[in-house]
Amino acid sequence: MRFYPLEKMMNLEDGYTRQFKIDALQLLLVQREGSVHLLEAACPHRGHPLSEGEIADGVMRCPRHNYRFSLQDGTPLQQVEHCRALRVWPLVYEGNEIGVMLPD
Fold first, then answer.
1. How far is Cα 76 from Cα 83, in angstroms, rounded to an integer?
2. Cβ distance 91 to 5 under 8 Å?
3. Of the chain's two ends, which shows fewer C-beta atoms within 10 Å, N or C?
């Protein structure tokens, strides 16, 4: 596993949203209500960019079809056909940076 730094802690604040590309992964780092989350950047249903979605009360809503996912574990919050859970990654803190551990 390798640490990939994403952002300096001092740059994070509520409303923060930034997309990152690491190899083939498109990741979205967000901070809302004091919590920081790292999730896949596209909706697993049809690939719509989640950076355009709304986040409130620990829920990510896709702007295309209004599918809602828990930011904690990516679980869909309604019965949805042909849509898997949203992938989320645990964050790692090293010094003054926040990042993610991914396979080499």
1. 8
2. no
3. C
Beta bridge partners of 20: 27
- Residue 80 in this model has a pLDDT that exceeds 80: no
Domain of residue 45, residue span: 2-102
Residue 71: Cβ within 10 Å count: 21
3-state SS assignment for residue 51: helix
d(CA 32, CA 86): 17
Beta strands in the chain (DSSP E): 2-8, 17-22, 25-32, 35-40, 54-56, 59-61, 68-70, 88-89, 92-94, 97-102
Other residues' Cβ atoms within 10 Å of the Cβ of residue 72: 11
Residue 16, domain CATH:
2.102.10.10
Convert the pLDDT of each residue in 12-50 to its tens digit: 999 999 999 999 999 999 999 999 999 999 999 889 999
Q: What is the pTM of this model?
A: 0.92
